Amino acid sequence: DGGITQSPKYLFRKEGQNVTLSCEQNLNHDAMYWYRQDPGQGLRLIYYSQIVNDFQKGDIAEGYSVSREKKESFPLTVTSAQKNPTAFYLCASSRIKDNVNTEAFFGQGTRLTVV
Amino acid sequence: AQSVTQPDIHITVSEGASLELRCNYSYGATPYLFWYVQSPGQGLQLLLKYFSGDTLVQGIKGFEAEFKRSQSSFNLRKPSVHWSDAAEYFCAYRGSTLGRLYFGRGTQLTVWP
User: Fold this and answer.
1) Which of B51, B96, B100 is most worth mutating to test chain A (most A CB atoms within 10 A of its CB)?
2) What pLDDT, on a 0 to 100 scale, did the predictor assign at position B52?
3) Which residues of chain B, if any, have pLDDT below 50?
4) Residue B104 near residue B90 (C-beta atoms within 8 A)
């Protein structure tokens, strides 16, 4: 089955620790995205990548880092510099066809809680 | 700045009633518009999209949306709501062919039996 796999589904982190959220897609999509979702705030873009080895900051990149070494993988690291990391994190991907970025498909999310 | 507005934070309708969820975008001569639905604790599922052509687009689960350029709107409609439609709905917008997506803050739909 083609799709986007996020792991783990639930993640607990102690204050001061870095954690890495996994996102893998087997849709052969070019672009990948990380969003953060908090109640009542919709989805806010953290980072996105349209090609391997290249990525851009979104609206709330501070305290986060990403890499795009392979087309199918776009891991997100939440660093200790992120002041309020407790949130629901969503990964998405989309295909770029004929120079048009098509609709985004989403994973099932990772809920990160700082304890 | 580019933005998407969903004016209704929460809507309650009775099962079988019609539904309209509002969405306005702020920028772009040729917008790419989307509606997504999210159940609690889940990812987002695409309901429908508008890229060009017919301004009335049909989606999954009996939903449709109409693009009105003069009003910068892309409202989602369903003639008869089912209890299983209760969820959060997000409008999204892309202002150019390769641009990033902008999301509204979402509308929570409650369906009374």
Assistant:
1) B100
2) 85
3) none
4) yes
Residue A1 pLDDT level (bands cut at 50, 70, 90): low
* Predicted pLDDT of residue B67: 94
Contact yes or no for B99/B34 (Cβ under 8 A): no
Asked if the Cβ–Cβ distance from A100 to B97 is below 8 Å, we say yes
Contact B34 A106 (CB under 8 A): no
Q: Is A79 exposed, middle or buried (0-12, 13-18, 19+ CB in 10 A)?
A: middle
Which of A12, A21, A38, A46 has the alpha carbon at shortest distance from B101? A46
- Identify the residue among B44, B89, B94 best suited for mutation to test binding to A, counting A beta carbons within 10 A and taking the highest: B44
Summarised one tens digit per residue, pLDDT across range A70-92 is 999 999 999 999 989 999 999 99
Of B34, B97, B106, the CB nearest to A103: B34
Q: Which residue of A has its CA nearest to B88?
A: A42
Q: How many angstroms separate the CA atoms of A22 and A78, rounded?
A: 11
